[in-house]
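In the laboratory, one determines a bound structure by crystallizing the protein with its ligand and collecting diffraction data. In a computational setting the workflow is compressed into a single prediction: the sequence and the ligand go in, and a structural description comes out. We illustrate the idea with LXAUTJHC.
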Amino acid sequence: MTEIEWWEYDDAAEMAGALAGDIGFIIESAIDARGSAVIALAGGSTPLAAYAKLAEARINWKKVTIIPTDDRIVPMGDALSNVTMLAKTFLPKGARVIPIISEAASDYKACGNAANARLSDFHWPLDLCLLGMGGDGHTASIFPGPDLEDALNAPADRRALGVMPDPMPQDAPVARVTLSLPSIASARALIIAITGEDKKTVLETAIDQADTSAYPIGKVLSAVELPVDIHWAP
Ligand SMILES: O=C1O[C@H](COP(=O)(O)O)[C@@H](O)[C@H](O)[C@H]1O
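The predicted complex, in structure-token form:
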């Protein structure tokens, strides 16, 4: 288990400002060091306010590539599509936003394989992976179900895979594509952003349980070696 630092805020707006500042700093540091930045950003609703603030930052967005940490297998433009949300926010700024869903794929595993092939073209490791977490303890789209072991025990060069959550999350009951644990754990910086007392309790429990946890986030964090910042607001 890695070193974990909690950053607690009075409210979600304060957290959004701090998170946007931290992500912006990491992007600029990567551009200074390597000439470009490749980052993975969580989907869902929690980080939306931070993304809106981040998009206003004076960053050379043309040097930034953004990958969703995971996506739901739905058409581009669908309300559940993580990449659509990221594209609406960051494409107008000049960033490259990379879809990981192929509508032509025959099934969720083929969709994951196509994402894996596409992502292999980018420079790895990621400069940043920003993770969210569901109330059920999933992170990215690493869910309990038939693909959990494949996501956790993927070979080091396996970037992404298709997963079928079981049980299905009620708010987005669809198959997914997710970054693998090695892709997440090898990032140069790892941040988790969550809100609410319930998620805080789940995350604290998962951290205590580490690799014995039934929560995927517990298993993921137990495999991570770099320090992790957790941003939380009520
Ligand atoms: O399904 C997903 O859920 C998590 C958490 O989303 P939130 O709406 O509760 O913030 C998210 O991190 C992940 O990217 C998304 O696909």
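The radius of gyration is 16 Å. Keep in mind that any predicted model is a hypothesis to be tested, not a measurement.
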